[in-house]
Amino acid sequence: MNVTSHVVATSKTASSLLLLVFSLSAFGADTPASGTYTDEQFERGEALYSLQCAQCHGAELESAAAPALIGPTFRKTWALMGANVAGLYDRISTTMPPRQGGDLQESEYLDLLAYVLGRNNVLPGSEALRNDYPYLSAIPFARGDEVLDIAANFIEGVNGLVPTGSGPSFDELMAAADNSKDWLYHNQNYQGTRYSALDEINISNADELQQVCVYELPTNATMQTGPIIYQGTMYVTNSTHTAAIDAANCEVIWSYDWAPRDRMVWGNNRGVAIKDGYVVRGSPDGYLLALDSANGNLLWARQVADPWLGETFSMPPMIFEDTVLIGPAGSENAISGWLAAFSLRDGGLIWKFMTVPEAAAGGGATWGNPNNILLGGGAVWTPLSMDLALGEVYAAVTNPAPDLPAYLRPGENLYSNNIVALDVRSGELKWHKSIVPNDDHDWDLTQVSPVLKAGINNVSRDMIATVGKDGILRTLDKNSHAILYETPVTTILNAEVPVTQEGVFACPGVYGGVLWSGPSYYPAQKLLITPSIDYCAQFTASEEISFTPGRMYMGGRVRPADEQTGWLTAIDVESGEVSWRYHSLRPMVAGVTTTAGGLVMTGELSGNLLILNANSGEVLNSIPTGAPVGGGIVTYEVEGKQFIATSSGNAMMTFRTGDEVEGGGRVVVYALRNAR
Q1: Domain boundaries along the sequence of the chain
Q2: Residue 608: exposure state from Cβ atoms within 10 A (0-12, 13-18, ≥19)
Q3: I need a labelling partner for 165 at 20 to 30 A (CA). Which of 58, 314, 332, 418 fits?
Q4: pLDDT digits over 370-416, tens only?
Q5: How far apart are CA 596 and CA 599, in angstroms?
Q6: Between vectors from CA 591 to CA 586 and to CA 596, what angle results, nearest 5°?
């Protein structure tokens, strides 16, 4: 019998084939010269499998009483994360059959291996398998068909796909900048201004705040959530927990805990998006899921990112019309980054924009590849912004991979560390702007906001601001895309010195300047106000690099300096001149919000909620929250009363500050002592 009749027909894209080739070369193994196994081995293995294995593993290898031996999950297990065919052979020959492992002859175990490989799309050759570790470990376990099947990985809620909750409408979302009672998007509105017209709490009474209530999240996960508020209900998250609480008293309305169904990459989550009764978020195992705003029931979940390739979701989604926009984190895992739009109704794919297309194809005009290594990066892990009039969505595309040895990928490395502007309905590229070309410090571009319009935001021209881990705030002319100015917001040292195998001491380190929270705009004084981290590090490129899918692919090491502090910097939006600065003894990563009451609200990793005078930077109040503050700071109104809410808990996975606490994160709500 011909083994090829058992191979599932698949379409193999150029990028996936190249990924396979580069993966093998990075492991340092040579592909068997004459194929993998013979048709005769396969046939013997098929007969033996029926006698020895089918009772437990199923006639079609699909599982019965034992794990499946076929399908994407099985292939990922033995093709990624350092596992290989040699390891699979070892597992089969030493543990199978159960309680009798090793009872078969070596040739029989090799026949069984041939059958399993053939059923999993590994093509035959002219040479029989042999028990030789280097030989077996070099056999590519088919990845050409392993593009994630989002149609197959779909879960429908037991109560159907349609929510019983309601609002906000699309019109309400589009008008969020004019609605200060609610907080409808991670950055308040799709322009990303993070400004509220509320003024009950103001310069004169900011020292009279008192704690109203606390909501404790149940799991010990990082706390980076940006609360969303609609008509008195607040939505908060951590890596797997989602809750709706009363925004005035923190009483739980409902909560939902996602049980991961696949490998979890990182445990960060920064919040939800809401529309028409849908509460949408991503998960660390690559699922996009929608909950019913009325009761927290799961409406649908669909795996749209592949955690085995290092993809994970940490960013808050954006909802536009009936589409959900989201992209994966994972540049350090050498993913091929993307931003995509999915249906709000069921998570089906509408469009996908690949953020490093030439990298995925092994290099191109802007990606040299002299050593024939795997290239990747271009994750999208921070909030999106929009120009509503033009229908353009802006993404901060992050670093290329491998991160440190830029000399191995000479060129601009598009579209890594670019502002990418897409048509929100089609995903078509409208324009892009390179900010940190050929990055060799892991200096992700992290924010493209706020988007300011002349005549609306009290500025002289249409502008867009951007910041990133290189520690520089830039403002662009929105029409010409020319950079108007570049203003450092943290210590800059040796930024232009290439990272080599000898090493270089440079500032910022890989975790600063500006991370997941970007600038707020204060229109009264035309100020952009941004947090930042101030620290340095020793960067060293590796002499040799190797790639294991799904694992870190830095291509070197980074040794942070001991001192790590932070800044809050106010910059004149027209000139780029620094108006005032506040220095913190800890890195500053929390959200920044400004108000018509003349306030700037943010937080410190020391645990303080900070209230400052937006005009001068004077600290008006510093309130201990009990844990590091690294998530969103928001303000809103319920029944005519203004509230401030902050997320508080262990905020940083990347380095320790000494302020960590036991237990889960929390949301703390404040108001004036004598407010109505």
Answers
A1: 3-137, 154-672
A2: buried
A3: 314
A4: 998 989 999 999 999 999 999 999 999 999 999 999 999 999 999 99
A5: 7
A6: 120
Q: On the CB side of 450, how many CA atoms lie within 13 Å of its CA? A: 31
Of the candidates 427, 425, 339, 345, the residue with the CA atom closest to the CA atom of residue 388: 425
Q: Could you tell me the CATH superfamily of domain 3-137?
A: Cytochrome c-like domain (1.10.760.10)
Q: What is the pLDDT of residue 358?
A: 93
- Average the pLDDT over each of 132-146, 311-325, 326-340, 609-623 and give the range with the smallest value: 132-146
What Rg value do the Cα atoms of the chain yield, rounded?
26
Return all residues near 152 (Cβ < 8 A) that are at least 6 apart.
none
Rounded mean pLDDT of 100-118? Answer: 88
pTM, two decimal places: 0.84
Torsion of CA 175, 382, 235, 636, to 10 degrees: -50
Query: What are φ and ψ of residue 189, in 5° steps?
Result: -150, 170
Q: What is the mean pLDDT of residues 26-30?
A: 28
Instruction: Please say whether the beta carbons of 49 and 112 come within 8 A.
Output: yes
* More confident call, 183 vs 659: 183
**From CA 184, how far away is CA 207, in angstroms rounded?**
27
Q: Which residue in this structure is represented by tokens 């645990």?
A: 607
- Please give the structure tokens belonging to residue 280: 């949408």
CB 319 within 8 A of CB 344: yes
Q: Which residues, in sequence order, are bridge partners of residue 504?
A: 539
Query: Which DSSP string do the residues of 313-353 spell out, in sequence order?
Result: --SPPEEETTEEEE--B-GGGT-B-EEEEEETTT--EEEEE
Please, which residues bridge with residue 458 across strands? none
The pLDDT of residue 676: 62
> Residue 73 and residue 149: Cα distance in Å, rounded?
11
Of 671, 664, 670, 623, the C-alpha closest to 216 is 664
Q: Are 180 and 599 in contact (CB under 8 A)?
A: no
Distance of CA 159 to the CA centre of its chain: 30
Query: Which spans in 533-634 are helix H?
Result: none
Per the structure block, which two tokens stand in for 133? 């570790």
For 451-491, the pLDDT digits (tens) are: 999 999 999 999 999 999 999 999 999 999 999 999 999 99
Range of weakest confidence among 84-93, 137-146, 439-448: 137-146
The residue whose two tokens read 């008006």 is 620
How would you class 496 by CB atoms within 10 Å of its CB: exposed for 0-12, middle for 13-18, buried for 19 or more? exposed
Look up the CATH number of domain 154-672: 2.140.10.10
Question: How confident is the model at residue 11, as a pLDDT?
Answer: 29
395 within 8 A of 422, measured Cβ to Cβ: yes
DSSP 533: E
Q: Kind of pairing, strands 593-595 and 195-196?
A: parallel
Q: Among all chains, which residue has been given the structure tokens 């100020």?
A: 527
Counting DSSP H helices and E strands in the chain, the numbers are 9, 39
* The dihedral sign for the CA sequence 116, 552, 302, 667: positive
Res 658: pLDDT: 61
Give the single-character DSSP code of 607.
S
31: left (phi over 0), alpha (psi -120 to 50) or beta: beta
Q: Are 42 and 124 in contact (CB under 8 A)?
A: yes
* Model confidence pLDDT, tens digit, residues 67-96: 889 877 787 777 665 678 888 999 899 888
DSSP-based three-state secondary structure for 204: coil
Sign of the Cα torsion 270, 276, 277, 280 reads negative
- 607-630: per-residue pLDDT in tens? 999 999 999 999 999 999 999 999
Residue 1 predicted with pLDDT over 80: no
Which pLDDT belongs to residue 64?
A: 61
